[in-house]
Amino acid sequence: MSAMADKTWFGQPRGLTILFLTNMWELFSYYGMRTLLVYYMTKELLFAQEKSSFIYGTYTAMAYFTPILGGAIADRWLGKRNAVVIGGSVMALGHFMMTFEPLFYIALATIALGNGLFLPSLPSQINDLYHADDPRRGRAYNVYYVGLNIGGFMAPLICGTLGEVYGWHYGFGAAGIGMFVGLIVYVLGRDYLPPENRTRVARTPSAAGERASDQSRIWLLLLGVGLAATIFRGAYEQIGNTLPLWTDIGVDRAWGGMVIPMTWFQALNPLLVISMTPLLLLHWRRRADAGRETSPARKMAIGAIIVALAYLLLAALDHFAGGERVGWPWLLAFFVILTLGELYILPTGLGLFARLAPPRLGATTVAAWFFAIFTGSLLAGAVGALWSRTSHAGFFVLLSGLALSAACVLWMLDRPIRNVESARRSLSVETNASADAGGPLEEVRS
User: Fold this and answer.
1) Which of 153, 397, 217, 408 is nearest to 297 (CA)?
2) 160 and 399 in contact (C-beta within 8 Å)?
3) When comparing pLDDT for 304 and 430, which is higher?
């Protein structure tokens, strides 16, 4: 791995760029199809709104549920590389099937099944690009997160425009092409990716001890982080649920003689992720160089607190507006604060799950992170149902409370997680030293 890690692009292992671009095109295909899905069902297939909403909700939920099974299959039988290629190929097939109306339901199921293999197997390879003590490893997931948002930003502009202007099937076909491009990038860049061949590593008492006793503790810690992520997403996911409703009735969108479309504000989040991430990474690097790097769980807690402040801003705006609309720059300020908090918590959480993964269970552990997204999305739906039952200011205070609750859980988990990561780093150093000294070896799958 050392030779691979020494070959860098933009200061990071070249494999990170390959994974970055692969996931960017996968997200382009996923969000491109999802952008058109409800419109296609209601306008082309003439489904009732209730039926369309049920199909949409079921599909998006299954897209985050199937990775639980797919991660286990990748770890036990296929391997991560094969799982990415097979899963991506199945997803591309599903997107192309969407261009044929009679295959609609089969196409949705095909995409969800392919996503189950693809989604956990790709980011779980990031951790294998770095040594345990590499300071770049924690920031790598923020770089990777930018790729997700570039794909999410391009999808509505390209697939959405093709679907609305030239025909739905052109938009679905473009999504399939995007997935195919991602697969090509992944296959051509395989030489820069972590190997999955059998390698010789040292067998030490510490390694045996971790396999026997510490894994249960690690799973309990990950369960706690997953619970915090679920609570957090109950608040965070309102940016696509109830926030657009408030934008419609509570925000003055007039600017320069025109009315800003509501959907433009939805594009702010990915744009801000792309523009703010380099500055945030520079800030974190300077802190690390000064010996003041923030631990992952504390960093996530800070992010949840920042998101809580963003919702408190909306609560104050709605309360003091007295029924009047607030200016759209306030909504822009909300998205800046919210995105800053998001960058602290979500990429860090993904990286934490990957780093704490037990041996040979990387894809399964990352799949557990996506399961937290699944449960958090369900919670967000239940919380969003309270929108019409309370004042808008009170609702935003509730969201702030949810985010603060997640921050409290993460803060309590900080010390145990730091202890586990410290033990992992010590184990890695001991293992490498034993291997260099010609200690007892055993064969394991890397």
Assistant:
1) 408
2) no
3) 304
Query: What are the backbone dihedrals phi and psi of residue 374, each rounded to the nearest 5 degrees, phi first?
Result: -60, -50
Whole-angstrom distance, CA of residue 27 vs CA of residue 72: 22
Identify the band that residue 315 occupies on the pLDDT scale cut at 50, 70 and 90: very high
Other Cβ atoms less than 10 A from the Cβ of 441: the count is 13
Instruction: Report the domain count for the chain.
Output: 2
* Torsion on CA atoms 170, 173, 174, 175, rounded to nearest 10: 130
Q: Report the pLDDT value the prediction gives residue 95, as an integer from 0 to 100.
A: 94
Assess if residue 3 is contained within a domain: no
Paired strand residues for 201: 442
Provide the residue range defining the domain that includes 378: 222-431
How far apart are the C-alpha atoms of 404 and 369, rounded to whole Å? 20
Q: Residue 420 and residue 396: Cα distance in Å, rounded? A: 36
Which DSSP category does 358 fall into?
Answer: P
Instruction: For residue 378, tell me if it sits in a domain.
Output: yes
210, part of any domain = no
d(CA 291, CA 257): 51
What does the pLDDT look like over 82-98, one tens digit per residue? Answer: 999 999 999 999 999 99
CATH number for the domain including 69? Answer: 1.20.1250.20
| Residue linked to tokens 């959405």 | 160
Would residue 438 count as lying in a domain?
Answer: no
